Every structure is written in structure tokens, then in C-alpha cells.
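Methods, example record. To illustrate the input and output format used throughout this study, we show the complete record for Mannonate dehydratase. The sequence lines were provided to the predictor; the line carrying C-alpha cells was produced by it.
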Amino acid sequence: MSIAYPLEQTMRWFGPDDPVSLADIRQAGATGVVTALHHIPNGAVWPVAEIAARRAMIEAAGLRWSVVESLPVHEAIKQGGADRDAALARYRESLVNLAACGLRTITYNFMPLLDWTRTDLAYELPDGARALRFEPVALAAYDIHVLGRPGAASDYAPAIVAAAAARFAAMDEAARTRLERTIIAGLPGSEESFGSADFLAAIGGYAAIDADALRRNLILFLEAVCPTAEAQGMRLVIHPDDPPFALFGLPRIVSTAADLAALFEAVPSPANGLCFCVGSLGVRADNDLPAMIRQFGSRIHFLHLRNTKRDAEGNFHEAAHLAGDADMVEVMRAIRAVARSERRAIPMRPDHGHQMLDDLHKSRSNPGYTAIGRLRGLAELRGLELGIAALEPREEALA
Ligand code: DNO
Ligand code: MN
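The corresponding predicted structure is encoded as:
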């Protein structure tokens, strides 16, 4: 059955060193990949020759480079430091180079210092598969007792502080190091990687930057790069905060519908777009995901479709794609409505997946980015889209 304006099915690929190959991705049924020039240091210009070579590699494997994820925003821009203007100029240059190679959807985030954050990369599910998990108590145990951030305890509820002390006391040195690495060494795709001493110092860089100041820096960034992007027919898509709340006392400003509405109001350029990450935004029970898709539909140019499951203690883990707190059926219905009304094939990726089956025994894998779990997620999402589309009025009837 053919669908009108189907989602473009993609998977993230971390480049030639990724244990998941382009052939694997193609066999999973994806037609596109989402990737970045991960070997280029954050803040340096992406040269045309390197972009073109990577594109050719992807196309030689029978795939399309659908979306750039990510063109990193340097801390000088996030913090608004002395080097900001030079960093902005380099960002614009990279955009122009990407457009010259036909790449027009560019993902970025505006999370201070850390990208996505978890406290456990191998949480065992009842069926033996492994998932990524976040526990506030584990975060507090690291923050208060390993990192020793001044004033950290006052950022957590007293019950969490008490539980964190007990958790820390029960951990041996190896477990403490594992927790430290998990939280701050940088998960796959992250732009920064820290040890605790450096991280503590870097947090100091945000001493004078509250949420309003960070928001101003984001708006300034967009005002500086959107005209270039717009002239090149590009879309910059911001990835929401993951998880969608402040960590380590650092502000986070892309977590709610109100955050997004303020951003699009401040910079109305059509180049100011959104990567709608269901797994990130869905961690907050107060985010009404289908309503947000309807509200921001015209801004959404990329989708991360994954699910999370919360519990009463504020923990969450990455659930199977159709099985978490997000009602993926309603999410998909809302997405299909945007795709049809705007007549667009929006790229999506299953985002993460469980480590399962043979992937449990591989010598090397990127947490969250194993082949089989993502293949399963993509297959489920593809079936869901097809099922919903089968119930839609035929395209001819719309005309
Ligand atoms: C995690 C990803 C993020 C995302 C960046 C975008 O799996 O969704 O690392 O790529 O936040 O800049
Ligand atoms: Mn995501």
C-alpha cells in the first residue's frame, strides 16, 4: 500500500567507525541516514570536500543523507562569551557549505555543557533486554557526593538527598566511577565529554547565566544564523532538552510548549524549526505531545519517535517504542495530519532502541544505538504509520 506523504524512514549513523553499518541500516528498511562529521572538533568549519565525501559514501550504500545531526553550537555561543561572533561566523560558513552539498535540515541543541543525560546504560528489563534509564537519586548521589558541587543539595528534595547519601554509601569505587562516566563522559553523539574536575569548572562558566540569559543567547544565535539558513532554503531544527528539566543547577530552556512558543515568537523565520523528540519531551507528564505537534506542526522538520516510562519516584527508562507513557498512536495521528495538510514527507528516526538479542553479545556498541532494537522500533513505527494511513481518506478524495 502506498501512503500519501509518508514519513521518511531514517536511522542515525555515527560514521565509518559505527559498529552498525550503512548496509545494516538499509536492511532495517531505512532509506536515509542522519549523521554528522563527528571527527571535526566542535566549533570548527565543516569543509565542502569533507561533507561531499561523506555524502558520496552514504549514497554509494544506497541511502540518502537526510538530516544533519548535529551541527554543534559551541559553548561560546551558548554562554555568549568573547568568541561568540567568530563562532557564529564559522557556524554560518558551515551552513553555506552544507547547503552547497544539498543538506538542508540541520539539527542542533542548546543544552548547557551536557547533551542527553542518563544514569544507567544497561538497565535490565524483565525480558532480559537492556535499556537506558535516568534516576534522580543516582544523579544526586553523583552531584552531591562525587562532583561535590557547592550548594547541590539544595537543588533536590530532602527525600532525594537522603536516598542519594545511602546510594552513594552503598557504591564501591568502581560503581562510583561508572556512574561518573555515565553522566558526564558524553553519550553517543554528545559534543562534550568531561571528567569531574573539568565539569565543575565548566559549571562555573554558567554562574551568571540563568534561564533568561540563556534564552537571550539562543535568540541571538538564531537571529545571527537564520538569515543565512533562510537564504539557502535550510531548516535549523532544535532538539529539546533531554531530560526536559534543569540538571546541576544549569538552566534548560527547550523543555515545554511555552518554551517553544516563546522561541518561535521571538524568531519567526521559517528557518527556525523543531526536531520533535517524543522521548525527550514525553518525560514530562505536563507535555501534551499530540497537542504540541498540532501547535508546532509547521515548525517540525524532523522527528525522533521513541518512548519513555516514568514511575512515581521520578525515574524513567526508555520503553519499547509503542509501549511507554507517550500514546504513540495519537502522536502518529497528529504527525500524519501535519504531513497530509502540509504535503510534506517529514524525516523520522526511531531514535534509540533496546540492546537485545545478538546485540547483547556484541563486543562494541553505542548505548541506545544498537542495530536490532532500533530495527524493531522502526518496524513497529512503520506498521503504525501504515495502519493509521490505511484509515485516512484517499489522496484523490482530498483534492
Ligand atoms: C540523543 C540525541 C541527541 C541529539 C542532540 C541534537 O540520542 O537525540 O544527542 O542528537 O541533542 O543536537
Ligand atoms: Mn532525540
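Annotations derived from this record:
The longest strand covers residues 64-69.
The chain is about 40% helix and 15% strand.
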